[in-house]
């Protein structure tokens, strides 16, 4: 025989029921909807967070959402480039890419990094398919003309053709996309992964685009901004509060929102299950940008 023992406050049945109801309401609204997740930063490097990522994305899939992963992999590209005697150079957060850097970027991003993410998701029980932005002519790119520097084979996106992604989603796969595009000239281009994620979200008319990164969200005066409008975000770029790797993320979020994506979020990939709390509870953990 066992008697009912008092439970700690977080296991109180009323609290648990309320949380469950809250989550169920969100789950209903998400069924069949596309969520583009940019996977970058420390979440991609540290083993303990890799497993959390795979488990969470697999859970979203089993709840009926249609996740699409777009990944970065800058640190791994730099590591391999160094073993080939190349010195990584950046201008405005963009990797200057000569022909040797380009070969390494494509090999690392569309090869090792892409397949590691696919393996992680498959191990967690999903069916993931790794493709690059070149496959099915998904990312059509052209050379990015920088005002002061020649960045080499860094591309900007002309158009995203979402047909291949939609075909994979329809068959129940999770597409995992590396940020490599091709030009009319058959030239390969290295694309910033944040830019790729936001253009893909726009082309898919995704419900959400979520950036997993190595900070909790947009920081200002040592605090995380939980919500801001598009015009406030533009102001923070102009004043220099948002800079470096955060700039292409926020610019991409603004473009995605303008193109009809319903919401855009930045969360930490180092908070266990931040993805789940952002999606299924009333209180998100990171930054959300809303349309003006
Ligand atoms: N206002 C800001 N708030 C938060 N982070 C900022 C801000 N301004 C600049 N940053 C920088 O942006 C970084 C996140 O972008 P970063 O490009 O380094 O990561 P990522 O895009 O997640 O990874 P990857 O580029 O490898 O895909 C933060 O670590 C921080 O240094
Ligand atoms: Mg980045």
Verbal overview:
By secondary structure, this protein is α/β, with parallel strands linked by helices. The chain has one domain: Carbamate kinase (3-Layer(aba) Sandwich), CATH 3.40.1160.10. The chain is built from nine helices and 16 strands. It has helices spanning 13-30, 47-62, 74-83, 99-123, 163-170, 193-204, 230-238, 246-258, 274-280; strands at 34-39, 66-71, 90-91, 94-95, 128-132, 139-143, 155-160, 174-178, 180-182, 188-190, 208-213, 219-220, 223-224, 227-229, 263-268, 287-290. A hairpin with a 2-residue loop joins β3 and β4. α2 (47-62) crosses α4 (99-123), α3 (74-83) packs across α4 (99-123) and α6 (193-204) runs parallel beside α8. The protein is globular and about 75 Å long. The chain starts with 12 loop residues before the first helix and ends with a strand. The mean pLDDT is 93. It binds adenosine-5'-triphosphate and magnesium ion. Residues 40-41, 72, 74, 193-194, 213-215, 218-219, 241-246 line the site of adenosine-5'-triphosphate (ATP).
Main beta sheet: 8 strands, mixed
Helicity range: 40-55%
Name given to the CATH homologous superfamily: Acetylglutamate kinase-like
CATH C-level label: Alpha Beta
Distance between the termini: 60 Å
Could you say what the CATH architecture is? 3-Layer(aba) Sandwich
Structural class: alpha/beta
Subcellular location: Cytoplasm
GO molecular function: acetylglutamate kinase activity; ATP binding
Keywords: Amino-acid biosynthesis, Arginine biosynthesis, ATP-binding, Cytoplasm, Kinase, Nucleotide-binding, Transferase
Protein name: Acetylglutamate kinase
